[in-house]
Design brief:
The complex is a heterodimer of chains A (802) and B (527). Chain A has a domain of 79 residues. Helix content of chain A is 63%, strand content 4%. Chain A is built from 32 helices and six strands. In chain A, the strands form two sheets. A three-stranded antiparallel β-sheet of chain A has the order 2-1-4. In chain A, a hairpin with a 2-residue loop joins strand 1 and strand 2. The longest helix of chain A has 52 residues. Chain B is mainly alpha-helical and 527 residues long. Chain B contains 20 helices and two strands. In chain B, strands 1-2 form a two-stranded antiparallel ribbon. Classes of the chains: A mainly alpha (802), B mainly alpha (527). Chains A and B meet through strand 1, helix 7, helix 8, helix 30 and helix 32 of A and helix 7, helix 12, helix 14, helix 17 and helix 18 of B.
Amino acid sequence: MLAAEASQAMSHSAGWFLEHAWVIPIIPAVAFALIIFFGKRLPMKGSELGVASMVASLVLAVGAAWQWIQKINDASEGGVSYLTRAAGEKTPFVGPIVREWTWWQSGGFEFGIGQHIDGLALTLLVVVAFISTLVQIYSLEYLKGDRRYTHFFAALTLFSAGMLSMVLAPNMVQLILGWEIMGLCSFMLIGHWWEDQANARAALKAFFTVRVGDMGLLIGTGALFFAANNWTQANLGVSGFNISGLSAWAMSGEASKSVLTWAAVALFIACIGKSGQFPLHTWLPDAMAGPTPVSSLLHSSTMVVAGVFLVARLYPVFWEGLQIGDTGINFIVLIGGVTIVIAALLAFVQSDIKKVLAYSTVSQLGYMMMGLGAGAWLPAVFHIFTHAFFKACLFLAAGSVSHSGSHHSFDMKKDMGGLAKKMPITATTWIISTLALAGVFPLAGFFSKDEIIDNVGHNGYQAFMIVGLSGAFLTAAYMTRATYLTFFGEARGAAAGEHHDEGHATDHGHDAHDDHGHDAHAAHGAHDSHDDHGAHGPHESPKLITIPLVILAFLALTAGFSNAVPFGASWERFKKYVEPSPAFVMPEPVKASGPGEAIVVLDSTRASEGGEEGGAKSGCSYQAPAEGEVCYFPAVSHAKFKWSKAALSLLIVAVGLVSSWMFCVQYYTRRNRRLVGLTERNVILRGGYTFLANKYYLDALYEKVIVRAVAYPIARAAYWFNQNVLDGIVNGAGKISRRTAGWVYRNIDQHVVDGAVNGSGAAARGTGGALRPVQSGKVNQYGALLFAAAAIGALVLVIVNT
Amino acid sequence: MEVLRDQNWLLTVGTFLPLVGVVVMLFIPKSDEQSHKSVALITALATLAIGIYTLTQFDFDQADKLQFFADAEWIKVISSNYTIGLDGMSLPLYILSMIVTVLVMIYSWDHIPSPGNPKAFLSLMLILQTGMAGTFIAQDLILFFVFFEVVLLPMYFMIGVWGGEQRQYASLKFFLYTMFGSALMLVAFIALFFKVRGALPEGVEPSFSIPMLAEYGGLLGRSAQIWIFAGMFVGFAVKVPMFPFHTWLPDAHTQAPTQGSVILAAILLKLGTYGFVRIAIPILPEGAREWAPWIGLLSVIGIIYGAFGCLAQNDMKRLIAFSSVAHMGFVMLGISTLTPMGFNAALFGMVAHGLITGMLFFIAGSVKERYHTLEIARLGGMLKQLPKLGWILGFCAMASLGLPGLAGFWGEFPAILAAYSPAPGLSEEVFRVFMVIAALGTVFAAAYLLWLFQRTAFGEPKPEFSGGHGHDGHGHDGHDDLHDVNTYEWIAWTPFLIAIVVFGVYPQLMFKIFDPAVSVALKAFGG
């Protein structure tokens, strides 16, 4: 704490909220423990603790964000004395608020825990806390009466704690901590209804697939740590795990290129797993087995962006390691681009509404990755921000449909249709979010997605701009299909008020929810009109569900204006507050003054803005920093918005929306003969459909080939080797020594050495199977024999060596 | 070597106090089972009290020095002395052995395995405790060897008398295999003594003292070091156990009574790894450097191989036993890097593995007691029938697969890190390959543990165990035994569970104790 006080005095108080942001994840962590131990005894079964902790975190996060905005404003107005501005400089440098305490030390290395607060961290803090709050409120209703209601809130709260601690991690170890805790919560929540083995398998698959990627996280972190530690200790006084330290090291020009490249690739593999990128995306659609609020929070808006966040957080490492500044194809942009298209195509063949959204999430994460891989850092981060709102809204709306409209079914083809009239609020929020996702002006998705596409092209990745535009078309089309099937056309199945028969429940995997939801409501029979769906049919959801929907839809409508590039630079607030400054900075390492505490104070002496608008590429990453200076962020350039370019993408989106709508009307309602059954008649289309319906056979490859091979033949072979070869040698050795002992005993001891104990002769004969030398009495003999051998060996060694 | 001699009676009392309990029990008739349980538990608690007092008296600022050091003449004719002391490397293991013994005693209160006879069972456990504690305090090779062997006999009888169906085979194999390793180890010790005696400078008394040997062992020629190291290697590697010397372990674990398995996993395996960090590597730095890549190789083979072994199992207890092979692979990988980071990771891994795998064996024992089977395919839906036991299993599975925030992670992650940058003189390329393989091992660990958890805990209970169904073919009505975690289990397990969380959240508690002592042990490697 001492150092904190000192730095305040020295560098203008950063503000209470900013300096105590580390409290934000601790609140839900404590709440988690309280829920686990006392939750069941509380009047609301622990859910009140969860909601309260999220509200508290949200307040702190918003407070910190507010102070950050103030800080940036002060700095840009020149109100802060410690900033010296060089001529021609546009934005002064405002460093992150880093605080670190010693967590553990080993072999002379110190490992910290604390906070690293800057625009990126704050964006995620606010988004995560905000959506967590809404989702928890929504869950109060949605999971009412669930048999593991308390567990559910505990896991949800722990998840938030993990995500928040990852987001503000000042170093890689804390980041890994949060990252893995999220994985655990994901496992617990996907498998929430574990009585059904299908859900348990989905949970296992999610955890395991992500874990495959996590190998890269461990390896990449290790490589970076050892490569950077000396440099960061010498220049910044922090360890090689430190985020700022790693960023500065990567940009210093002194880092080994090969280590950077390998580390970047390894870390990105972890991101592929976590963020559901091709080819490890297969767990994410299966993860929809969890309750819908979980899908909304973890598997769309927050946890799955952890991989994107990691790339954004350590951007200099990826920038330098994969040469993002050059315009050749790199690993990130390639994976991102491929993911956009393959996931979007898969969304067309789903009949489960949540799976459409799951593939849509995968595809949108692909946009973020592609943006990061092509140097469009800010649009990608902005897309995390906007996507969180409309995707959370879409999932919650899907949950609302199943809760009140389709009798707990998620099957669009069987149990939905025509729900718009019955559920106007849900339908309206869904449609707003769909348009936002499709990128219709002026909804949130337009401002972020179009910026990604624009900047990807601007930075020289033209091919990927086309991928982005195709993705926009596909997005518009599959979302229109889902919208049509759910809310328009004729009502089918449960949406038409039909009662479920027993056989129906076994038809689709997600109906685990069916049983439990049903049980739940039977237990709480008094609650609204759920018990007689048959009589009342679909209806609008209660307020605890619709209010979060409305709030999120409002944000889907408006969030884009926080960085509305088309309206000029003064609208680019998100950029102003979030994008790190690519300035050359004079760091001032401060040694720990309190017990094990170090704060890096950053000061700016010279700053330059990177090449704008096709100007000469200069600044950080293009010029090595001068002696004693460091860079924390590459000088990325930003595309200038042109309506002509935007018009093209808007047109593509419009075509996607309209053509898909027309197709749906013809296909699903009019049953147009030329379209219906086309996939059976046309060989190419049939092949394509089968390929998609089987998810490119990736699941088959993983589960039927790789996992099966490792789990069965390879493991069995290894075990056979163990039992027969290794153990055979051991048993054989035992057998031989016993025979030898017997021989020695019979022939030497009995004959040569007189007066042997006759009684033990029987024991020496030895009985029993070859593998089972029984009779514990022999231990003494073997022991004696071995010791004799040892003694002789010792003697030999001594003689030989002297 | 500087040592602290204050209160040098402490370790002797702490180590031999259990034997006092054994003597008392000798005079109590066999039929008075309650008295035996009480005496044994009181003795173990008293020993632990001494241990805790030792902990309070330990000077943590001087954890690099041997404390409570005592040095008395013992067997003069072979220059072996009663030299004991405790530093940061041995302290946590010394205390752990005492805690585990107490908790196992508590568990035994209503879990004396068939064929009963608490008098013998608990006496053996107390003798075992003396052997384990003695191994960690011994600073003389012969003394170390004696304690190392003392451990063997009680465990042999525990498995052989109170074990499962194939107990005789398993116990014999355990005994002989370990004995075989010990024999080579003893050869190595003796050879070391004679070789070092020849190389000692004037005025230094030749002895088996470990600190003395660590100081002068480096004087030996390279080839002598390599040969002597090889002898020690076999002795310790069997005990760890490292691939390919591990085959006694699954049998011993599977057949041993729960208490035996817990002690075996929690403490006995650590005697081998402890031997490496305390004796083999500090005394023979050249030999260690030469062998390190091979140790690393066997470690990573063990990690993957152990995982395969787990995946092939149908028996829960045998699966946990194979997971020990994999986890000890991580420990040995850390050791093979010969860096302070790797050693710290290994020491942490030893304690963490002791807690976590010990807990898993407790759970396996309780599952067996309730379901009368450990066959994974027959179990299922444990969360529904025995939710508390099921969640504890889930918790331990997560800890075992190395979830950050729980103790297991801090043994694994730093070991993997350390492999990136081994000690000078070792090939970085080779160790980086090991690092990648070890990281792959964490994936397998997740696979077999979660698979185990999914198959046993998730889903609906199998008809044969859910009341009302499946009376057929099930001799005794198993579902009558299905009760959730009971009081004795709670008392025995809670400390483990708390320790797993506490060390996971704040690993510094242990790292700060190890760190100084590790630097001393590795001073020959420029650590």
